[in-house]
Amino acid sequence: MIKITKGPKPDILNKKAAQWTVNVQAAIKAGEELSNSLKSKYNHAEVKAAIVAETHGKCAYCESKMRHVAPGDIEHVVPKSVDPKLWFDWSNLTLACANCNTNKGNREGFIDPHIDEPTDHFWFLGTVLFSKAESDRGMLTEAVLKLNRPELYDKRYDRLQSLERLLRLASKIDDPVLKQTLQQDFIENETKTECEYTAMSRAFVANAQAQGLLPQGQ
Ligand SMILES: [Zn+2]
To answer: Cα separation of 53 and 99, whole Å?
Structure first.
């Protein structure tokens, strides 16, 4: 999980969110069943595009990219059932993979990468995500969302292997200037926010720097 900067609110929400919210609250108050049309207004194409842009198409929680096989779920950080006022609230919407979304269910109290700084709550050793000892919310988030599920281990291990191969290639260059350039490019390119599992990759780079395998400075 990495920090996500909220993008600009889509126009459709500026224009419609207040009325949609009134309609939802009125239906709930009247004990009426909400129509599928009303319930899913937050899935508007403008909203989805803005959410995908700000998350780079990655799950906000596990950093998996899913858009090549699934559209990804628009996720309510505070569940709709907990606070219907936030049903169409831009600050409450993000992108989640089906697994994290299902695991989270209607619960709340998790680390929110739009508000919290995930590095205050988690650290990586290899492919394993640990919650920091002082972070009960981090521990809850890891356990409930299953952020060390076997499928994630496998994908993160593939990513680590690819990083290790690139690091090894750069280390074999004899020319010191070219080597330094390649290593700096490696640090910059492989830790970008749009990459999968960036939190883990940044930990890998920091570890390699601490061991003198990569130059410091970024
Ligand atoms: Zn996920």
So the answer is: 21
Alpha carbon of 31 to ligand 1 centroid (Å): 33
Each residue's pLDDT, cut to its tens digit, for the chain (218 residues) gives 999 999 999 999 999 999 999 998 888 888 888 888 887 888 899 999 999 999 999 999 999 998 787 777 888 999 988 888 898 999 999 999 999 999 999 999 999 999 999 999 999 999 999 999 999 999 999 999 999 999 999 999 999 999 999 999 888 899 999 988 888 888 899 999 999 999 999 999 999 999 999 888 65
Where would I find the H helices in the chain? 11-29, 36-39, 45-55, 98-104, 136-145, 150-171, 176-190, 198-210
Give distance in angstroms: CA of 55 to centre of ligand 1. Answer: 12
What pTM was estimated for this model as a whole?
0.91
Could you give the CA distance from residue 209 to residue 204 in angstroms, rounded to a whole number?
Answer: 9
CA of 183 to the centre of ligand 1 (A): 30
Q: How far is the CA of 75 from the centre of ligand 1 (A)?
A: 11
Which position has the token pair 């010191």? 176
How far apart CA 3 and CA 118 sit, in angstroms, is 6
CA of 171 to the centre of ligand 1 (A): 33
